[in-house]
Amino acid sequence: MHRRIIVPSALAASLMLAIPASAADFTPGAPGIGDSYYPASGNGGYDVSHYDLRLRYEPATDLLEGTATILATTKQNLSRFNLDLGLKVSEVRVNGRVAKFAASGDHELEVTPAVPLEKNKEVSVVVRYAGKPSEFKVDGWSAWARTPDGGVAAQEPDSAVWWFPSNDHPLDKATFDVSVSVPAGHQAISNGVLQSQSTALGRTRFNWRSDKPQATYLATLAVGKFDITTDRTANGLPVLNAYSKDLGANAGAARASIERTTEVAEWLETVFGPYPFNSLGGYVPNVTSGFALETQTRPFYSPRQFANGANVSVVVHELAHQWYGDSVSVRDWKDIWINEGFARYGQWLWSEKEGEGTAQELADYVYALRGAEDPFWTVKPGDPGPENQFHGAVYDRGALALQALRNKVGDEAFFAILKGWPKQFAYGNARVADFVRYAERVSGKPLAELFDTWLYQPSKPAASAAGAAGVSAPTAAETRARAGAGARTGAKAATAGEKAKAAAKPVQPKSWKKIAATNTVHERDHGHEGHGGH
Asked: Considering only CA atoms, which of 369, 465, 361 is closest in space to residue 408?
């Protein structure tokens, strides 16, 4: 009888052959998607196509119960994957089978399916969970705001982990169905179109659908008692605005602003091209915050945005984001300029349209307003750093860069770029570098030096660079007029020093105060100059 002797190396090889190749290389998905500012945000290994959220919320106790069904496609052979969620999970199923799960970190949910998942396969994940969102905090802050009659989820760059499990990063966009049961007499507001609502046994269920890809931070939920107005645009899109019933003195100004949403959107279509989504609107809950946010199709506004009266400029800003930030989203949070610089420039163009100061006058004012020693100029809009992501320079210096571009390439090419960019990258993601290349292609001009000067240098562009970009300090005539005005104010004639001081001040465009009123301290303030009209 012959015995086959297998040497160790041959034995190892034969054992490897005995293990299916598809089982040998299953690995966990990464706990982060790779963002340079927020390494823990998002997850690797899969791509979500749809979220179906079925929720029940109790305003009196802040208890949220949910069943989330997530449809995704694997991008690698997965032995385990992560979701982002801060509430307590009771059960997870993957492809219908019970899966193991464990919580880790601040908001990581580690899911181990009963059977490893092969690459490029469609997967369904069902997560049952519950908790009080207001009791969950990350680094001491919360994206969930309690209101006297309910609660609201709205914040940037994170808000999803407070109310549904997700791959929480703009790189993984998906469509949404959000169904919410609340006590009768309350409403639930979310993104997209209200498909239906029904009341039974003292509760009302609202079913919302957002049918275009949507970043998770742009998903919103508001439960409370609202006055709701509805309409349709000339093109048939549904318009829904919601106002908390207890806005007090701010109620009239809020309505006077947000009821112009359709008008603003139709004007923005002439600037940025066709509106990219299935509905329009906005909502104002009774919160104490001061910011606004471009939650997709239905921007969130704090009542304090209207404390000094109506302000359509903030509506322009948030609606401009529907093209720049929502349809075309950042690939990495360091690319925030392709959101905020353009939304701010939209406000400048609205000012120009309304005869309250041209974009050129606003650019000249921003350039002249701060001296070279001002820390404002040390912030680089093209890569501001996480601590300065919502710094005023990303907005104002960011818009100044666009006026420099407009002067460089001319209006025809500039507005072709503004319309073409949202079409080129519709429902996707892009970087600042992608915009630079796109602008060069459309204009036929080399633009790297211009963008480096205005977006990436941590200093005020020199007068020579500003002049070359068509940006300047006030003219001599303007400074003389300012000096004269200074001399005429008060009971006594101004001194020579006062005249010089008045002459040094740049001439403020009429729209500036309305635009500046959208600048408030960001909710996640870390001691830097923040911005409230995200």
From this structure: 465
Under 8 Å between Cβ of 323 and 273 = yes
Half-sphere exposure of 128 (CA within 13 A, CB side): 7
Helix (H) or strand (E) holding 514: helix 512-516
Segment holding 393, helix H or strand E: helix 392-409
Strand pairing report for 108-112 and 78-84: antiparallel
CA neighbours within 13 Å on the CB side: how many for 522? Answer: 22
**Residues 6+ positions from 433 with CB-CB distance below 8 Å:** none
pLDDT surpassing 70 at residue 304:
yes
Tell me, what DSSP letter sits at residue 153? E
Contact 399, 317 (CB under 8 A): no
Query: What digits encode the pLDDT tens for the residues 113-135?
Result: 999 999 999 999 999 999 999 99
* Residue 50 burial by Cβ neighbours in a 10 Å radius (0-12, 13-18, 19+): middle
Q: Which two tokens stand for residue 383?
A: 């890569």
Which residues, 6+ apart, have CB-to-CB distance to 364 below 8 Å? 471, 472, 473, 474, 506
Q: Specify whether the CB–CB gap between 180 and 188 falls below 8 A.
A: yes
- Give the Cα separation of 53 and 67 in Å (integer): 6
Q: Are 219 and 191 in contact (CB under 8 A)?
A: yes
CA distance 437 to 481: 42
Between 40 and 76, the more confident residue is: 76
87, 156 Cβ separation under 8 angstroms: no
Q: Which residue has the tokens 């996640």?
A: 524
**CA gap 530, 527 in Å, rounded:** 8
- Strand pairing category for 27-28 and 78-84: parallel
Distance CA 408, CA 450 (A): 9
Do 180 and 197 meet the contact criterion of CB atoms below 8 Å apart? Answer: no
The pTM (predicted TM-score) of the whole model is 0.90
Q: Which of 53, 46, 82, 56 is nearest to 176 (CA)?
A: 53
Q: How far is CA 223 from CA 144, 435, 442, 466, 506, in A?
A: 11, 38, 45, 49, 45
Q: Are strands 193-200 and 238-244 parallel, antiparallel or unpaired?
A: unpaired
pLDDT, one tens digit per residue, over 172-225 is 999 999 999 999 999 999 999 999 999 999 999 999 999 999 999 999 999 999
